[in-house]
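Hi X.,

You mentioned you wanted examples for the new student's onboarding notes, showing what a folding record looks like when two proteins sit in one file. Here is a clean example. The first protein comes first, with its sequence line followed by its structure tokens.
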Amino acid sequence: MATLKDVAELAGVGMSTASRAISGKGPVSADAAARVKAAIEALNFRPSSIGRAMATQQLGIIGLFVPTFFGSYYGTILTQIDTELRAVHRHVVVATGCGEVAPREQAIEAVRFLIGRDCDGVVVMSHDLHDEDLTMLHRMHPKMVFLNRAFEQLPDASFCADHRHGGELAARTLLEFGHREIGVISGPATASDNQARIEGFFGELARAGIAREDVTLIQSDFSPQGGYAAAQQLLESKRRVTGLFCANDTMALSVLARFHQAGVSVPDDISVIGYDDDYSAAYTAPGLTSVHIPTAELTQNAVRWLVNQCYGTTWEIFREFPVSVTMRESVGPVPALKRTSRGGDR
């Protein structure tokens, strides 16, 4: 295998000149750079990551833990992280949970794996980890950022949208269209971001005089299969629901599919609002109304903050991530109001 010394000898330059030409850092004449490039191609030279790490005390790699690789929501996050790191000539290595142990243990094991691989920094995205787990992992590797997680003990390292307000906006949207017979398909009860949006949702309903016990609540798991099963459970329920809040878009898309199969029209028979407003929401039939979480911007700032900690860059960091509602066709007036409205138009 060719070495830097081989490249320098073939190019007729010193090793320091060859190193500067390869790294792009420091003065190198155009002629010397061209000769080094030709030597690299002739020798099929690949710079050693171990050698770079010994020189810089860095591997140029950021670790990322996500609970799953599936879904457009995580696709947005993975794409944004890769884009940010490539912009500063760094790369990402991704780990996820696996095995027979509980999700919490899977997450801890995966983050420890990334730390053990000497990643310069680590991005952690998990609703299964407890606060004490985050504290323990941060002690193992202080250059760590928590994505979509409000962590009071380390606020600078935490980047999260206001999910409570997101839940309030979801409820307000249904209420503004006249819905009072309401259903909810929630995510896992243990997930902190799910807890916040559900509490915000019920809080807004309470202010409108709708008690929690009067709402049809089905707990699910954020997955397509979970959303589909919850929709079936709702179809079999004897409670009338005219407005439905799904705690993420992944479940909402499965709900729309199951309703279509059952001959239930959205929004003529029931209105559906999702959460996240990931890129798939615009391509459903009907288009999915969804609480918009600025996931790409949130991810961008979390990664830039970590890059600043790891590599001494000076990215400006923003911490305000406004939550809003993207209106599409899946939410409309309650059926009775629609009939009254049509009757008045004749």
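Then the second protein repeats the pattern, sequence line and then tokens:
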Amino acid sequence: MLRILTTYGNLLLAAMGQTLLLALCGLFFACIIGLIVGLMSVIKNKPCNILARLFVDLIRGVPMIVLAYFIYFGMPYLMNTIIGIGGVTLTALQAGTICLALNCGAYMAEIIRAGIESVDRGQMEAARSLGMPYWRAMQRVVLPQAIRTMIPSIINQFIITLKDTSILSVIGFPELVNTAKNVVANTFMSFQTWAIVAVMYLVVITLLSRVARSMERRLKCGH
């Protein structure tokens, strides 16, 4: 194990950095997607409600590994061959970010929808009665209150997204699992390598879990 740490320690740390980068990029765009789809699911507009439900059901119903393969291999083929744009390629980072953003975005949409619906409807009615337009009332009154209840769930979703990055080793992204496979291939030290990787994940995820619990306690206490 010491040999792996001395020889490949920096490589594994760099791979963890790539893992965190991918998770952050995915979560950033997932928040945007989730906010749009979450708002579409709560507004009083039937077509928007249907589109939001279709998106959530479709993405959540497809295994992430299938989604990753489709985006990395299928989307360039679709754009180049069927649509005829030509020259479209995706890097592993781009495909991985899209995959995580879509997958995480579907769950974020449900978190945001639940957060908005947890706010008493009287808040929106009171804001509207004061002459606020619907979207301004949503922005100024409802969303600030909803975000308080959403923050712990968003952090938990980030933890899930961080673990899901390991699936993207199938498209060659140099995250921690993919790098660990290369280390095992070079050293034939499978148990030691995967033990180190497990500890690295455990440390990062434990820290994030503690942050989530701390924020949840603060929100419950009203701080």
